[in-house]
Every structure is written in C-alpha cells, then in structure tokens.
Design goal:
Blueprint: H1 2-13, H2 27-35, H3 38-45, H4 54-61, H5 65-77, E1 81-86, E2 89-94, H6 111-125, H7 155-163, E3 168-172, H8 174-181, E4 191-196, H9 197-203
Antiparallel strand pairs: 1-2, 3-4
Helix pairs in contact: 1-2, 1-3, 2-6, 4-5, 6-8
Amino acid sequence: MTTAIYNRLREQLDQYSVGFPATKSGIELKILQRLFTEDEAAMYLDMTMMLEAPDAVATRTGRDSGEVSALLEQMAAKGLIFRKRKGDEVRYAAVAFVIGSYEFQLKNMDRELAEMMEAYLEEGLLDFTPGKNILPLRTIPVQQSIEVSHPVAPYSQAREIIKTKETIALTDCICRVQQELIGKGCGKPKEVCLSFGSHADYYV
C-alpha cells in the first residue's frame, strides 16, 4: 500500500505543469514520502486544481467533514496544497510540484531535502533525453506564419499593475536556498521572489 499510494501520487503530479517523471532510482518517491504522509497522499489524490471548501470535498469524497477540514489545513500548512482565505471562508486546491509545492518548502528545506532535490533534478525533472520527458513548453506547428514579438511592459505600466495588488510578498528564492545548502550557492541575494494577491497571502 505504501509504495502504491506514492506511485499514484507521482502519476497525478506528472500531469501538472512541468510534470513529475519517474526515475530508475526512485528518488522522486523518496521525496514524496518525505513530504506527504499516506493520509495526505490519499487526500491529494481526491483533490482537483479547482478551489473547494472542506465541506464540498467531504461531500464529494464521502469523508467526514471535520477530518477533511483538519487534514486540508494540515496539508496547507506544510505547503502541499494551495489555500485561499476570504473572510470566514477557506478553500483549498491541489498544486503542481513545480511551480507549486516545491516552492512552498522554504520552511522545510534542509540539507537532506536539498540533496534529494538535486538528485531528482539531474535524473528526472531536467533530463530531456529524446523520448523520455516531454518538454512543458514546445513549438507546435500550425501551418502558418506567426509574427513574433517580445513586448516588455514599461516601468510605469508595471508599477500601475503592482499598485492594484493589496498584498505583496517577498520571499527567498527556493532554488538559491536549495543550492546553497549543498554548497553550490551563487552568492546572489536570496530574498528576491515576489508573489501577489491570494498567492502572497498564502505564502505569508
């Protein structure tokens, strides 16, 4: 059961964002076992990327509402799922591994996890051997020419966009934190990542 639930969790995460491919060493399963309990893994498998209240999740999955509420809050506190609060209402949703639960591991990142992630980056996430992992961003032919442009928002426009946000969070870069823990730090400032709105609220 233990291996099975984490294999199912890996398969689910592999459908999102940049994926979560399997490796020969199984390092990705060790990472999942480090982050998720079996109960949390099972709960994640019942989640979607659509925000839901605990009662709705409980009704949909046939679980006890109180237990669901407690488990979802526990998972959100560990950075395994996304949480959005609005007044007295709180809702939760599944997130990808990258960008998602990996970035939410700032409080939990230590040398052991950093080394596990380094091994997985080399063997899994960043291994684009032909026929192995599908690049998340790739060219798809559409049988016609497309004019390429790379507009950059001027400072004044970017400033106005940011001014509309009620919450702005500044956090350490998880990549620089992870690399520093394994002795490969770049020496650049770590507190450089910005998030806005509900994502900033959750990050805080």
